[in-house]
Amino acid sequence: MGRALIIGAGGVASVVAHKCCQHPEVFEEIMIASRTLSKCEALKNKLDGGKTKIQVAQVDADNSGEVIALINKFKPDIVINVALPYQDLPIMDACLATKTHYLDTANYEPKDNPKFEYKWQWAYKDKFKEAGICAILGCGFDPGVTGVFSAYAQKHYFDEIHTIDILDANAGDHGYPFATNFNPEINIREVTAKGRYYENGKFVETEPLEIKREYDFPQIGKKNIYLLYHEELESLAVNIKGVKRIRFWMTFSDSYLTHLRVLQNVGMTSIEPIEFEGKKIVPLQFLKAVLPDPATLGPRTKGKTNIGCIFTGIKDGKERKYYVYNVCDHQECYREVGSQAISYTTGVPAMIGAKLLIQGIWKKPGVYNVEEFDPDPFMDELNKCGLPWHEEFNPVLVD
Ligand SMILES: NC(=O)c1ccc[n+]([C@@H]2O[C@H](COP(=O)([O-])OP(=O)(O)OC[C@H]3O[C@@H](n4cnc5c(N)ncnc54)[C@H](OP(=O)(O)O)[C@@H]3O)[C@@H](O)[C@H]2O)c1
């Protein structure tokens, strides 16, 4: 039925490729293209032998011209961008030039300014519309499934949603004193940034990790949660009409936070280049090089993640609460696709978004966030593709 060009060969790309191969009726052919060809080849070697045909290629996705040449050669229906957020715009440019659909899991961020915003990608709306192609932005878990959950709550349970709390808990233990579960550079940039939440039409800024609560998560137990800014706050504030407050919370262990504080205090998380032995290096990139590669955490990580959204609002004139979440087991993910749950919970929704687009179910010209599509087919696919969800109608709220 279709062909997908997967850009990137890291933790998330590996899950996307595995899951595409589980749906050969939709993904007849995939190409895995990334900066390091050997990683693409290693992935192909693991996956070859099934019905989906696999090709590999080397590409520098910072260079639109290279991506255009690759698209013209492979002629995919969709480009699934699971490289890094810095590549979003060059890849979108290549999709425009070749009239190819586009999907990603993280919004664009300039390398020298850790400030992720949708404005750069939303600016492509008219151009994508005119070209008759569809871009699905932020189709991982958060952002991604959290937006689908919001659209589902809006469609089925609320006349008006007043508050959304997005709760991302990882109770996985990889046995290292300090490691990040996905790309360390992106992860640390996110966590060390100022916090922000949406309230009454504007964003309120906090110091990094200033606001802390405790929440008792289903299947995981009590965890400290910290308020962070996360990119879906920006799109949900626009797309969930009438919402008054949206907050994003993430769990961090005390050990993670202590290490992070020390690394920050000694300057290792800085993105300002420094001179070292006659060479310019970026401390955060050097730190990435010495930390465990997230792709190697899979076999070591035990425990579960729980990511979901708690909504409050009104239905038929009455106040209503609703909690919808997924629990994912690191070791089960590893057994199925050789990756831990963080990559799994991102890669599965990316495959589902691409599948729905190829099938014509989620396809309209323009640039969209996931909550702008019908959530029902996506919610069905989550249950079928390894990320089943649970509902509670009287959850404890985050105060
Ligand atoms: N929405 C969500 O829920 C969610 C959650 C987690 C992660 N994410 C996003 O998912 C994406 C992938 O994360 P990950 O953990 O898989 O990261 P990763 O393991 O670091 O993989 C990134 C891949 O992109 C490749 N790459 C980097 N720059 C490139 C370039 N210029 N041209 C071609 N390929 C390039 C890397 O190549 P090398 O191997 O040569 O370095 C690597 O294979 C990131 O954007 C991350 O922010 C989203």
How would you state the average pLDDT, rounded?
A: 95
- Small molecules bound: NADP nicotinamide-adenine-dinucleotide phosphate
Percent of sequence in beta strands: 25-35%
Largest beta-sheet details: 9 strands, mixed
Low-confidence stretches: none
Overall 3D geometry?
globular
Beta strand count: 18
Cα separation of the termini: 48 Å
Q: Could you say which structural class the secondary elements and strand pairing correspond to?
A: alpha/beta
Helix content: 25-40%
Rounded radius of gyration (Å) = 20 Å
Give the count of helical stretches: 14
Pick out its properties:
single chain; alpha/beta; 9-stranded mixed sheet; 35% helix
Q: Brief overview, please?
A:
With 399 residues, the chain is an alpha/beta fold. It has 14 helices and 18 strands. The protein is globular, with a radius of gyration of 20 Å.
